[in-house]
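I'll show one example:
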Amino acid sequence: MTKFLRTFSFHAHSLLLLSAILVTFIQMASSHRSPYEFKQRKNKSSFTSTAAKAAVSSFSTEKSSNSTPPTNAKTSAPTVKFSENSGRLQRFNVKEKSPVGVLIKRVVDLLRETRQALTTNQILEACNVDMIENKNVFENLRNNPKVVYDGRCFRYKSKYGLEDKDQVLKFIRTFPNGIDVDEVKDAYPTVMEDIQAMKAAGEIWLLSDKKKETIAYPNDLRVTINVDDDLKQLFREIELPHDMLDIEEDLVKNRMKPATDTVKRRMALALIANSEPKKKVIDFSKKKLTNSHLPELFKLPSTSKSR
C-alpha cells in the first residue's frame, strides 16, 4: 500500500509539472493575440494550475488521514463581529467630544431618573461619560448642589430632601400662603402623581393658570391665612349676581368648578313637590256638632260681651 501511494504521488507531481510547462507554451504561442484573449487564456491556465494543486493537496490530506493523526492540529478561531462594539465606541467618541456642560447635564439627568447611587464605571456604562479621564466633569459634579458624592458613588439630591407623599404634604402645610409646585417636583419620580392624589382627596388646593397648576395651598382649617386689607376691600366691592345660575356660569368661565349645582337642585325640588300629596283642608262649618250638651262653648265672644 505504501508503494502504491508513493507511485501515485510521483505521478501527481509529474502531472503538475507537465501542466505548468503546457501553460508556459500556450502563453508564448498566444503572445501575438489580443490582450482580451491573452487574459482569458491566463485565467484558464491559472484555473488548471489551481485544480492540479487542489488535487495534490486533497491527496496529501487523504494520505495524512490514513496515517497516524497529527498531534498539533490547529483549531479555527471563532469569528468576531465588531459591529456592535464599533457602534458603541463611535457613540462614546461623539459624546466625549461634547462640551463639559452637556456632559454634566447628562449625568445629572441620569441620577435624577434612576435615584440610585452610581459609581463612575456605572455612569460610564449608562451614558458614556468618562469622569476618570475628564477631570472637569468630575470636579463639577462633586461640587454640584444637586449631586451628593460620598467618595465612591454619586447620587441625586433634591432641593428639600423629600422622599414620600407624607413628607410632601407636611411640607406644603408649612406654607399657608402657598408654594410653587416647581419647588417640589424634583423630590422623587412620582411626586406629581402624589400631588394630584392630594388634590383629589381634598388635602390641598392647586391654583392653576391657563397652562398648568402652579401654586399648592394646604386645605387645613387650622392654618391661619393672612389676607391683605386691600384684597378684602376689593372682594367686598365685587357685586355678585342675584341668581346662583349666573354665579356658576361666571365660575365656569374663569376655569373654576362650582361647589353647587343649582339646576340639579331645582329639578330635585320640583320633583319632590310634584310627588308629595296635597293635604286636605277640613271645613268644620259643614260638620255636625256633637257637643250640643255644652252650648256655652259655641257662643260668640261678641254676643257674650254685649250681654
Summary: Residues 64 and 73 are 12 Å apart (CA to CA). Residues 32-36, 62-74 have pLDDT under 50 and may be disordered.
